[in-house]
Amino acid sequence: MLGEPLDRNVGGKTAEAMAELDLHTVGDLLDHIPRRYVERGELTSLDELVVGETVTIQAEVVRVSGRQIRHKLHKLDVVVSDGRGTLTVTFFNQHWRDKQLKPGTRHLFAGKVDVFGRNKVRQLTNPETNPDDDDDDFAGGLLPLYPATAKLRTWHIRKAVKSLLASLPELPDPLPLELRQKYKLPGLREAYQKIHRPTGFADVEAARKRLRWDEALVIQVALAQRRAAVERQSAVPRPERPGGLLEAFDRALPFDLTGGQHVVGEEVAHDLARTFPMHRLLQGEVGSGKTVVALRAMLTVIDAGGQSALLAPTEVLAVQHERSLRALLGPLGIAGELGSADEATRIVLLTGSQTAGARRAALAAIAEPETGIVVGTHALLSEGVDFAELGLAVVDEQHRFGVEQRDALRARAEASGGTPPHLLVMTATPIPRTVAMTVFGDLDTSELTELPAGRTPIRSHVAAPQWHNRIWLKVREEVAAGHQAFVVCPRIGEGPEVDVDIADEPAADPTDPTDEGADSGERRPPLAVLEVLPLLAEGELQGLRIEALHGRLPSEEKERVMSRFTAGQIDVLVATTMVEVGVDVPNATVMVILDADRFGVSQLHQLRGRVGRGSAEGWCLLHTEAPEASPSRERVEAVAATLDGAELAKLDLRERREGDVLGTAQSGRRRSLKLLDLLRDEQLLIAARAEAAEIVAHDPDLEQHGELARVLARRLDEERAAYLEKG
Ligand code: ADP
Ligand code: MG
Predict the structure, then answer these.
(1) Which residue's CA is the closest to the ligand 1 atom numbered 5?
(2) How many Å lie between the centroid of ligand 1 and the Cα of residue 292?
(3) Which ligand number lies closest to the CA of residue 310?
(4) How does strand 546-549 pair with strand 484-488?
(5) Which of 118, 353, 445, 690 makes an SS bond possible with 281, Cβ 3.0 to 4.6 Å?
């Protein structure tokens, strides 16, 4: 029933209009749930109308005045009221409307809010109207309003849904009966009835709760099945070996591990010793010391006869990692060379920009078991590099190392006759617990919450225009004290190419309505590396050693600049968000972010994490021209106000909506989460996760849960389609 095409149930024209809303089946239409409800007689608050939005409002006609503007053009102004404010609704060449829209009567008006005249007065032009006295539509005093289009008004949808519901048979229910009873949830048909034709808000709430459960359970069952599938795979266990490389490393370590590093180390060691692959996500604030945790896991695997790969999101980072692993390992990392320790292993770097000769040598080394650690980008896994025995893959700063990549990793291992490696994914992007549960629910998670002792917290300041020159004074001051600075811009500048360096997260979306609304079109373009650098070099930062780092530089050049910066031969690095992740230069103490309002919250937090990594105090200066109290400005202020990544992650989530966080948001594509709110529904998600685990434990292939299995299959198909579309 739910899968039936709509054109068999509603008129052909209506079906066409519905297709524009991506509604194709009976199920789609029933799942097209009201955005909100109006109570009988309740008037829409007119000052909340957003310009550009298609709205349906309920309002009372105050006065009507018509006039002939010129030949064949009649204008009818209808002033309507919500009891406090008024709005003008204008009709052209519809004089007859004055008979329908009598002062004192109430109507629904549906149309797009636009602005008129120099004073930007909001108005509706030629909206469709519907007298609100159609008694039957207000089933219990509540009238549902749907997301609608110009061709398909909310009342068209209402009528179609109403007739569907009238003939709707009892539906097979994906939620098991016991579960519905336990959580007091209505059945599926009843839920549809209640959400589309409620007799009061209690109905709406009950129905929403039930439909949220559908969403949550389907996701959690999918994840529980993935976990179960991983547990059925086999992997070579890599238990800790006394007297090996790890012990030698721990003895030589110049600092004590933090409590968190100890705990996570044990969790990882426990996973590595099992006969199925570890799938663990390690979250930890920037600077919390994830690299050491990863290195210790790698050494454990080497002690147990395997190799480890460390994958970075960019070549610059791969090079950095190789260098810092060498530094951390010292004599333990140079097997075969002069001065190496007995237990020593070998580190090899493989990047796309190496010369053919260097690459050949690296590939040959990787095929030898004496090479314990291989550092590279993700290409390492896809290029068919032959490892002697890959036992562990560590993926750094890539929380989007998704299901697909993990599948690819497993498939490759199987194709070469081996077992999949253990997997450790690391991220400094704080992920709210519910998102972690939803997106990474098939991973075990570990967290590093404390920073190593002896760090001074970073000082963050928002620099509004009157303070802009102070920024450069501060930079000069720090450089004079022997430190270094980053200056980050949202754009590269000059040149026709697409301009944003995508490190991981997209920069703030200039078309995002939360950004600056209708004004965004009038803003100047964001500041650019190639434009800012010469200005600074000849102006405020004259005499300092300044260089640029951005995505359009050839790889060798990027590496050269980065290593010169690391070596202290550059004072100020003007860069794009390339420096967002992983860059570790403890002598850098100032992070200047130009046009900070153009970045997302998490991005700003990440960028800030590039300083304050040594013992000296770190500074983050957030340059902005966004007007005070504007949403963009507030976002920047929020970042300045706290160093708590978890709190910022929540803020980010609130701003970006779950769809984007889940990575499945496609313009025009249905959101995968309609009702479930990852900020609000934490308890429900926790319960759904437990129920899903229970269901999958007893019925791994969902043989006794036919409808749940069908809904799940449909959802996975949609996801696969979305993934393929992304290419
Ligand atoms: P992130 O978690 O951001 O990747 P890193 O692993 O790069 O952080 O560590 C940041 C810095 O802290 C590095 O210079 C590292 O050597 C140092 N570090 C790591 N663990 C400790 C510790 N327990 N005590 C002192 N310094 C540490
Ligand atoms: Mg790191």
Answers:
(1) 289
(2) 7
(3) 2
(4) unpaired
(5) 445
Residue nearest to ligand 1 atom 4, measured at CA = 290
Atom of ligand 1 lying closest to residue 258 CA? 23
3-state secondary structure of 331: helix
Residue 203, C-beta contacts closer than 8 angstroms, at least 6 positions apart:
140, 194, 195
> What's the N-to-C CA distance of the chain in angstroms?
33
> Which atom belonging to ligand 1 lies closest to the Cα atom of 256?
23
Beta strands 588-593 and 619-623 are parallel
DSSP sequence for 233-261: S--------TTSHHHHHHHH-SSPPPHHH
Can you tell me the distance from the alpha carbon of 21 to that of 191, in angstroms, rounded to the nearest whole number?
22
Distance 333 CA to ligand 2 centre (A): 19
| Residue 493 CA to ligand 1 centre (angstroms) | 34
Q: Do the beta carbons of residue 126 and residue 74 sit within 8 Å? A: no
Q: What are phi and psi of 654, to 5 degrees?
A: -60, -40
Ligand 1 centroid, distance to 258 Cα (angstroms) = 10
CA of 293 to the centre of ligand 2 (A): 10
- What pTM does this model have? 0.71
Average pLDDT per consecutive 10 residues, the chain (727 residues; last block may be shorter): 82 85 90 83 77 81 91 91 88 86 86 80 83 56 80 83 89 95 96 92 94 92 89 93 95 93 97 95 86 97 96 85 92 90 93 87 93 89 81 81 69 78 86 74 84 83 90 95 96 62 36 35 80 94 95 87 93 89 83 93 86 86 91 91 83 62 37 69 90 95 94 81 57
Gap between the Cα atoms of 280 and 223, Å rounded: 14
